[in-house]
Amino acid sequence: MNSESILVVEDNIDNQELTKILLEAEGWQVRVAEDAPAALHTLETYHPRLILMDIQLPGMDGLELTRRLRAEPKFQDVTIVALTAYAMRGDLENARSAGCDGYITKPIDTRNFAQTVREYLENGRTTPS
Ligand code: MN
Protein backbone atom coordinates (compact mmCIF):
# COMPACT_ATOMS: atom_id res chain seq x y z
CA MET A 1 0.00 0.00 0.00
CA ASN A 2 1.58 3.25 -1.15
CA SER A 3 -1.19 5.37 0.30
CA GLU A 4 -0.25 7.23 3.46
CA SER A 5 -2.19 5.99 6.46
CA ILE A 6 -3.52 8.26 9.17
CA LEU A 7 -5.43 7.67 12.38
CA VAL A 8 -7.54 10.58 13.60
CA VAL A 9 -8.27 10.42 17.33
CA GLU A 10 -11.06 12.92 17.82
CA ASP A 11 -14.30 12.88 19.82
CA ASN A 12 -16.05 15.73 18.02
CA ILE A 13 -18.14 14.37 15.15
CA ASP A 14 -17.90 17.54 13.04
CA ASN A 15 -14.11 17.50 13.34
CA GLN A 16 -14.03 13.77 12.59
CA GLU A 17 -15.92 14.34 9.35
CA LEU A 18 -13.99 17.45 8.35
CA THR A 19 -10.56 15.94 8.88
CA LYS A 20 -11.57 12.71 7.13
CA ILE A 21 -12.85 14.60 4.08
CA LEU A 22 -9.76 16.80 3.86
CA LEU A 23 -7.31 13.93 4.29
CA GLU A 24 -9.09 11.49 2.00
CA ALA A 25 -9.16 14.19 -0.68
CA GLU A 26 -5.35 13.82 -0.73
CA GLY A 27 -5.67 10.09 -1.38
CA TRP A 28 -4.62 9.15 2.13
CA GLN A 29 -6.10 6.22 4.00
CA VAL A 30 -7.91 7.49 7.10
CA ARG A 31 -9.36 5.80 10.13
CA VAL A 32 -11.09 7.55 13.00
CA ALA A 33 -11.24 6.70 16.69
CA GLU A 34 -13.52 8.66 19.02
CA ASP A 35 -11.54 8.16 22.22
CA ALA A 36 -8.42 6.59 23.69
CA PRO A 37 -9.83 3.06 24.15
CA ALA A 38 -11.08 3.06 20.55
CA ALA A 39 -7.68 4.27 19.37
CA LEU A 40 -5.85 1.56 21.29
CA HIS A 41 -8.21 -1.03 19.85
CA THR A 42 -7.68 0.23 16.30
CA LEU A 43 -3.90 0.31 16.80
CA GLU A 44 -3.87 -3.39 17.66
CA THR A 45 -4.31 -4.12 13.95
CA TYR A 46 -3.57 -0.82 12.19
CA HIS A 47 -0.14 0.82 12.06
CA PRO A 48 -0.57 4.33 10.67
CA ARG A 49 2.25 6.58 9.48
CA LEU A 50 0.74 9.48 11.39
CA ILE A 51 -1.73 10.07 14.20
CA LEU A 52 -3.69 13.29 14.53
CA MET A 53 -4.29 13.39 18.26
CA ASP A 54 -7.01 15.53 19.77
CA ILE A 55 -5.74 16.52 23.19
CA GLN A 56 -9.13 17.04 24.80
CA LEU A 57 -10.83 13.64 24.84
CA PRO A 58 -13.34 12.20 27.30
CA GLY A 59 -11.61 9.88 29.76
CA MET A 60 -7.92 9.43 28.96
CA ASP A 61 -6.77 12.60 27.20
CA GLY A 62 -4.61 12.80 24.11
CA LEU A 63 -1.42 13.60 25.99
CA GLU A 64 -1.77 10.54 28.20
CA LEU A 65 -2.59 8.37 25.19
CA THR A 66 0.51 9.75 23.44
CA ARG A 67 2.66 8.91 26.46
CA ARG A 68 1.32 5.36 26.45
CA LEU A 69 2.01 4.92 22.76
CA ARG A 70 5.53 6.33 23.07
CA ALA A 71 6.21 3.82 25.86
CA GLU A 72 5.78 1.02 23.32
CA PRO A 73 8.63 0.28 20.91
CA LYS A 74 6.29 -0.47 18.02
CA PHE A 75 4.92 3.08 18.01
CA GLN A 76 8.27 4.90 18.01
CA ASP A 77 8.14 5.41 14.25
CA VAL A 78 4.65 6.92 14.17
CA THR A 79 4.42 10.67 13.76
CA ILE A 80 1.98 12.08 16.31
CA VAL A 81 0.57 15.56 15.79
CA ALA A 82 -1.48 17.16 18.55
CA LEU A 83 -4.81 18.63 17.50
CA THR A 84 -6.20 21.07 19.99
CA ALA A 85 -8.24 24.19 20.52
CA TYR A 86 -5.91 25.14 23.32
CA ALA A 87 -3.41 27.68 22.09
CA MET A 88 -2.08 28.73 25.42
CA ARG A 89 1.56 29.21 26.21
CA GLY A 90 3.06 25.92 27.25
CA ASP A 91 0.79 23.71 25.19
CA LEU A 92 3.40 22.98 22.57
CA GLU A 93 5.89 22.10 25.29
CA ASN A 94 3.32 19.84 26.95
CA ALA A 95 2.55 18.13 23.66
CA ARG A 96 6.23 17.66 22.87
CA SER A 97 7.09 16.35 26.29
CA ALA A 98 4.27 13.81 25.94
CA GLY A 99 5.84 12.62 22.69
CA CYS A 100 4.03 14.63 20.03
CA ASP A 101 6.04 15.79 17.01
CA GLY A 102 4.02 18.93 16.45
CA TYR A 103 0.82 20.76 16.89
CA ILE A 104 -2.17 21.86 14.77
CA THR A 105 -4.68 24.28 16.25
CA LYS A 106 -8.46 24.07 15.98
CA PRO A 107 -10.65 25.28 14.46
CA ILE A 108 -9.03 23.61 11.48
CA ASP A 109 -8.01 25.96 8.70
CA THR A 110 -9.30 24.07 5.68
CA ARG A 111 -7.03 26.05 3.32
CA ASN A 112 -3.76 24.75 4.72
CA PHE A 113 -4.64 21.71 6.84
CA ALA A 114 -3.74 19.08 4.22
CA GLN A 115 -0.48 20.83 3.35
CA THR A 116 0.50 20.98 7.00
CA VAL A 117 -0.24 17.27 7.43
CA ARG A 118 1.75 16.56 4.25
CA GLU A 119 4.77 18.31 5.73
CA TYR A 120 4.52 16.18 8.85
CA LEU A 121 4.25 13.05 6.71
CA GLU A 122 7.30 14.07 4.69
CA ASN A 123 9.39 15.14 7.66
CA GLY A 124 8.42 12.29 9.95
CA ARG A 125 9.49 12.56 13.53
CA THR A 126 12.18 15.18 13.02
CA THR A 127 9.89 18.09 12.19
CA PRO A 128 11.00 21.22 14.00
CA SER A 129 8.27 23.43 15.42
MN1 MN B 1 -12.03 16.82 21.79
Describe the fold and architecture:
- There is one protein chain.
- Strands 2-1-3-4-5 form a 5-stranded parallel β-sheet, sandwiched between helices.
- It contains 5 helices and 5 strands.
- β1, α1 and β2 (29-33) form a beta-alpha-beta unit.
- The longest helix has 12 residues, at 13-24.
- With 129 residues, the chain is of the alpha/beta class.
- The protein has helices at residues 13-24, 36-42, 62-70, 91-98, 113-123; strands at 5-9, 29-33, 50-54, 79-84, 102-105.
- The protein is 36% helix and 19% strand.
- The structure holds manganese (II) ion (MN).
- Manganese (II) ion (MN) binds next to loops.
Considering the chains and any ligands shown, give keywords for the structure:
binds manganese (II) ion, alpha/beta, 129 residues
Biggest sheet descriptor: 5 strands, parallel
Named once each, the bound ligands are: manganese (II) ion
Please tally the β strands and state the result.
5
Q: For this entry, what is the oligomeric state of its chains?
A: single chain
The portion of residues assigned to helices is: 25-40%
- What is the CA-based Rg, rounded? 13 Å
Mean residue pLDDT: 92
Low-confidence stretches are none
Count of individual helical segments: 5
Biggest sheet strand line-up: 2-1-3-4-5
